[in-house]
UniProtKB/TrEMBL annotation:
InterPro entries: SGNH_hydro_sf. Keywords: Hydrolase. It comes from Pigmentiphaga daeguensis. One of its GO terms (molecular function) is hydrolase activity. It comes from the Bacteria. CDD domains: SGNH_hydrolase. This is SGNH/GDSL hydrolase family protein.
Length: 219
């Protein structure tokens, strides 16, 4: 599918710390989509799970970027904003959720499936209630170990879980974009600038091929 499908579409992108660091998706993905003519509002909140976007919740750091403006990087004053409030303000054609690593609980022996299901489905329902199309981007490979204890088995489990639980959102499987360890990280989970550029480019192409954007483009 040609990337021209992105032209003129309004996208609201919500995510975790992959959208809060200079050189991360707040730059790479946002710039890619903007270059294709999309109207983009990207918001990142460090450590925020899906359900945290149903309320206003303080987080340790965050970032916000609108259109061709520069990212506003936030520290202790960062917080999430309820998804209903964001959708009412932006009226996006499509909401893009990039949440996976935060909820995978890599440092825990067992994956908290019930909590994750409640969190994910609460957010997708809130989006669906506004009759807004959505796409959920799953977590990518990282480097096993490190500060966040990321590991291949759990990231695969998280990806499979999201694939079967984010409906009515489309699912984008980031594990298909690279081989394990191909994109270098700085701490096991967060990528170098080159890694974020590669991931951002792959997400852009996946969005151009997603049913949600095709429907939005043809509305």
């Amino acid at each position: 599918m040609s990337l021209s499908i992105l032209a003129g579409l309004s996208l609201l992108i919500l995510g975790e710390s992959h959208l809060t660091i200079t050189g991360s998706l707040i730059d790479a993905l946002h710039d890619d989509l903007t270059r294709q003519g999309a109207k983009v509002h990207s918001i990142g909140a460090c450590g925020a799970s899906a359900q945290d976007w149903l309320v206003q919740k303080k987080v340790d750091c965050g970032a916000d970027r609108v259109g061709k403006g520069r990212p506003v990087i936030r520290g202790a004053d960062a917080s999430t904003t309820p998804i209903s409030t964001l959708i009412a303000a932006d009226k996006p054609d499509v909401v893009v959720i990039i949440i996976g690593d935060t909820m995978a609980s890599y440092d825990k022996s067992a994956f908290p499936k019930t909590w994750a299901w409640q969190s994910v489905t609460s957010l997708t329902k809130a989006i669906a209630d506004t009759h807004t199309r959505c796409v959920w981007v799953g977590p990518p490979w990282g480097t096993p170990g490190g500060k966040y204890k990321k590991n291949d088995a759990r990231v695969q489990l998280m990806s499979r879980f999201l694939a079967t639980n984010v409906a009515p959102c489309d699912y984008v499987d980031s594990l298909k974009f690279s081989k394990p360890g191909e994109w270098k990280t700085v701490d096991g989970q967060h990528f170098t600038v080159a890694g974020y550029k590669a991931w951002g480019s792959a997400i852009t192409q996946a969005l151009a091929n997603s049913p949600a954007l095709k429907e939005a483009h043809g509305k």
